[in-house]
Amino acid sequence: MTVTSQLNRRGLLTGTAAVIGAAALPAAARATAPLSGTQAPGFYRIKLGAYEVTILNDGARTFPLPDTFVSNASKDQALRAAADAFMPDGKITVPFNPTLINTGSKLVLIDTGNGPSPDGAVGRLFANLAAAGVKPEQIDLVVISHMHPDHINGLRTAAGKIAFPHAQIIAPEPEWAFWMNDENMAKASDTMTRNYFANTRKILTGLEDRIVRYAWGKEVAPGITAIATPGHTPGHTSFTVVSGNSQMMVQSDVTNIPELFLRNPDWHVAYDHDPALAQQTRHEFYDMASVEKMLIAGYHFPFPSAGYVEKTATGYRLVPVQWSAVL
Ligand SMILES: [Zn+2]
């Protein structure tokens, strides 16, 4: 049988090739091993100048594509984009990836993931932090990019305690001003926004004095500067991280999943507070990043959620980093 004759749909589906292969193996090579049934730890390190950046996976959620997930494109168009990215039929997968930066003198965590979750699909940050050899008590500074649940809920343990007991916690001033304002909360007209407001009260009440607010343009830690990228939320913030001659950007949610929204940068994800401003921010951000060939960590990029963005005829394309076995 030639190789080509095996590469047809019927041959692959009936497993003919596999059976022939197995029969050819010596008996010793067929010893069984138990299936592990669990995924490998999700953390990935990048050397950035004198800094070490560790992307920590908080898990992912796969769910049926909501009718208005893309608010300015048809559901059919969105489903086609999801299918083109080989997402499960009729569904989308949204991953979550906080970033830890070790500056040599400080451990800085940007965003905290979804927090404890009974089903284990998300809330993986703490297991992956442990796998990376870091205890929550060691974190010096927690930097919040914006106050959506998937970014702030990891601030608290299942028992409601602060998950990072020794850390200073900081949040963007305009973000705090918007979400913690009761008049804004009373004005919220849709269920999603009302839920967001309720969640900020659940997580942040009692922390008013503890959480320090930072301004855009300020260095929040040595080499880490807050950059205004509003639209997704009023105070949505990204970060530049610079060490020596090396730099990268932690974009937070400038775009949601790249398979839909980098390819179609004018599509509005349902979670955007000011979709037109988010669209403008997206173009400015990726035009700059593509020209500068900037390494980007994207919270909702597929793990290890770092890569480069290239401009295409119709939008942008993510070029993921190559796995590196050495730092
Ligand atoms: Zn998010």
Write a concise keyword list for the protein shown above.
327 residues; alpha+beta; Metallo-beta-lactamase, Chain A; 2 domains; seven-stranded mixed β-sheet; 11 helices; 16 strands; 27% helix; binds zinc ion
CATH homologous superfamily designation of the largest domain: Ribonuclease Z/Hydroxyacylglutathione hydrolase-like
Q: Please count the beta strands (DSSP E, at least 2 residues each).
A: 16
Helix-strand pattern, N to C? HHHEEEHEEEHEHEHHHEEEEEHHEEE
Q: Note the main sheet.
A: 7 strands, mixed
User: What does the overall shape look like?
Assistant: globular
Main CATH class of the largest domain: Alpha Beta
CATH topology of the largest domain: Metallo-beta-lactamase, Chain A
Share of residues in strands: 15-25%
Whole-number average pLDDT? 94
Report the uncertain regions.
none
From the N-terminal CA to the C-terminal CA, the straight-line distance is 45 Å
Bound molecules: zinc ion
Number of domains: 2
Describe this structure in words.
The protein is 27% helix and 24% strand. The protein is globular and about 70 Å long. The strands form three sheets. The protein has a seven-stranded mixed sheet. The chain has a seven-stranded mixed sheet with strand order 10-11-12-13-14-15-16. A two-stranded antiparallel sheet has the order 3-4. It folds into two domains: 31 residues, no CATH class; 279 residues, Metallo-beta-lactamase, Chain A (4-Layer Sandwich), CATH 3.60.15. With 327 residues, the protein is α+β, with helices and mostly antiparallel strands. Helix 5 links the parallel strand 6 and strand 7. The termini are far apart. It is built from eleven helices and 16 strands. Zinc ion binds next to helix 6. The site of zinc ion has 6 residues, from helix 6.
